[in-house]
Amino acid sequence: MIIRRYLIKETLKTQSAILFVLLLIFFSQKLIRILSSAIEGDIPNDLIVSLLVLGMSNMIDLILPLSLFLGILVTFGRLYSDSEMVAMYACGIKKNIIYQVIGFLCVMTCLLTIINSIWFGPWSNLHQNQLVENAKLNPSLAGLLAGQFQQTPDGNSVIYIGNVDKNTINNVFIAQINPKNQQRPSIILADKGEIGHDHAGNQIIALEDANRYEGTALLKDFRISSFHHYLGIIKPKEITANDEQEKTDVQQLSFSKLLQAGTPKASAEFYWRLTIIISVPLMAFLVIPLSVSNSRQGRLAQILPALLLYLIYFLLASSIKANAGKGRLDPALWFYLINGCYFVIAIILNCWDSLFMRRFRLKHLQYRTAA
Known about the structure:
By secondary structure, the protein is of the alpha+beta class. It is about 60% helix and about 15% strand. It has helices spanning about 1-40, 50-55, 55-80, 85-90, 95-135, 240-245, 255-260, 265-290, 300-325, 330-350, 355-370, and strands at about 150, 155-165, 170-175, 185-195, 205-215, 220-235. The chain has a six-stranded antiparallel beta sheet, with no helix packed on it. A hairpin with a 4-residue loop joins strand 5 and strand 6 (about 220-235). The chain is elongated.
């Protein structure tokens, strides 16, 4: 039907525009945080793009329901303000078409939300955490920043590099503060060098025309050595199974594993994901009557109450998740309570302008007038 296609097209256009703007805002915030970590040397520069892509799952959780909610609110608010909906009703178009259009859009948005909650979200959080932890435990020498002191993965040495150009480094300072095998502390100075990896995955730093100063100030016994070629090997730190188990986050678990975990945090995460999925049809159903307006009313008359209801819903859901993760309340009870209350509100708002409710209000008004 032409009207159905027209409503779907207009709503999708508005939803896509809102989704793009929201993604741009959240993406910019994520980019600033990642760039700050890269500048401080917490993560190497070559992980910036990977972390940005993997971090999109957390953005999609909140953006998809909000984009559909605002898309319906703005689109149908404009159609009512421009009297297009009045013209459609005058031509015999029934209100059921609106629910069919919203239902179709809810199915599309729900599918994307379910895919993100069940598969992409846990997978991206797991790989994002692995990349960050591996970068902290085994920082690549290629990711060293010029003009900053950084510690090697084993914690035995401190490296300072004056200039970094791809694999070439200049003005190198290496202080071995905790040498092994009862060796004395030493300092290595070199004008230039190169960095790379061997077949075993170890990091290699090769210095040219290096000077090594070995000894301690207490013993006043120093040994000075000069090398045309100095080769240093830095072995990566291995992560044990216990370390991986302790760092496992509930956001990395699937639905089935969340149920099997039985911990307060796992239960809170499980019902939070259900809330994200259910919020798509629930808030879309709720916003249909709130989008009704006329040319005499300003658009803020509908937008502000709708946004207030949406904000209260997700603030309550976030608060329940935080408190349930600490074991302070039962997330299942509050999940059904909040969603049930909002479902009742949606039913009342959608039935408020029905023939039955009109007759009921008229009868009640006549009764109060007679009294």
